[in-house]
Design goal:
Ubiquitin-like (UB roll); 15% helix; signal; transmembrane helix
Length: 335
């Protein structure tokens, strides 16, 4: 039976080309491993940018999603905070994550305070988010264009401007005109005075219902007043029995007559012709008088029925008193 030859591997001669092929394969394997490793690194590790409330951070991360990135960087989103991409989104190379942090804002308006947590950029945006309507004349402090900061406090002043008119009566002047056609102490209205009318137009500004400014826009006289003209008597003399009597005033009176009663007068004298009973509040005691139809007299008595423009004339006899009776006459108060 034929025996097979088994060569000694250790002593076997390997051709040169076979050695070269092994080296090339090894090198090719290393290159593939390197390429795979770099590709894996590039795929796993990404460079991203985080802009958190205006602060920018550029970093490399192995996080696969936005949520993982936030956990990796210890970032927690508040209830009203916003982010520009979904938390479940896959991260990409060069991704830019923008986080807007909500800030507390207080708005004082219409007697109440509104609190809100907002990501609004400007005060105007925050006011709009709060559902507040601002009128064209309303005042907003700080300015609506200012940026919202931390713990921003806003005040809205409601401004109302209205025009009103006010009418005022214009008093008339009283003009006294002397005349010798009237007795001294007498007056007569020649022209009756009439009040005029002035109108003022105001512009009134209210802040939250309170008047802060009142401006006169226009004034006009609607109706001019009419002066009252009063004639004032200057005539102080009359002629009686060929004699000129000078007086200070004239009183139209009701004159009655009386005679002896057995009593003295109120001033303590015995009654006699020329004694005149008067109201002392109208004609003081001791005043010298001239009474038309009676003659001279002196205020020396009074009576319970003698009030105001009324006098009682004393007569020596009952017949004279009855003859006089009761009549209207003039009493001249002598100077």
């Amino acid at each position: 039976m034929k025996e097979w030859y088994i060569p000694d591997v250790k002593t076997a001669v390997i051709p040169r080309y076979k050695k070269r092929t092994g080296v090339l394969g090894l090198a090719l394997g290393l290159i593939l491993i390197l390429i795979f490793g770099v590709s894996y690194y590039i795929y796993i590790v990404k460079e991203v940018t985080i802009v958190d409330d205006g602060k920018t951070l550029v970093l490399k991360t192995k996080a696969a999603t936005v949520e993982e990135l936030l956990k990796e960087t210890n970032r927690i989103l508040g209830l009203k905070d916003t982010i520009n991409v979904p938390l479940t989104a896959k991260l990409k190379e060069g991704e830019k994550i923008v986080i807007n942090r909500a800030k507390p804002v207080k708005i004082a308006v219409d007697g109440r305070e509104i609190k809100l947590l907002t990501v609004a950029k400007t005060i105007a945006d925050a006011i709009k988010e709060a559902g507040i309507t601002v009128g064209p004349q309303d005042i907003v402090e700080p300015s609506p264009s200012e940026l919202v900061g931390i713990n921003t406090e806003v005040k809205i002043i409601r401004v109302k401007v209205e025009e009103k008119t006010q009418e005022v009566a214009l008093a008339f002047r009283t003009i006294k005109r002397p005349t010798n056609g009237l007795f001294k102490g007498r007056t007569k209205v020649l022209t009756k005075g009439k009040t005029g009318l002035a109108r003022t137009y105001y512009k009134i500004t209210y802040y939250d219902g309170k008047v802060v400014k009142k401006e006169v826009v226009k004034q006009e006289v609607v109706k001019k007043p009419v002066d009252e003209v009063i004639l004032v008597g200057t005539k102080d003399t009359v002629s009686r029995g060929g004699k000129v009597i000078r007086f200070s005033r004239v009183i139209e009176v009701v004159a009655t007559a009386y005679t002896h009663t057995g009593y003295r007068t109120a001033t303590g004298v015995y009654p006699h012709r020329g004694v005149v009973a008067v109201d002392p509040d109208v004609i003081p005691y001791g005043t010298r008088l001239y009474i038309d139809g009676y003659g001279y007299g002196t205020a020396l008595d009074t009576g319970s029925a003698i009030k105001g423009a009324r006098v009682d004339l004393f007569f020596d006899s009952y017949g004279e008193a009855i003859s006089w009776g009761r009549r209207f006459t003039r009493v001249y108060v002598l100077e």
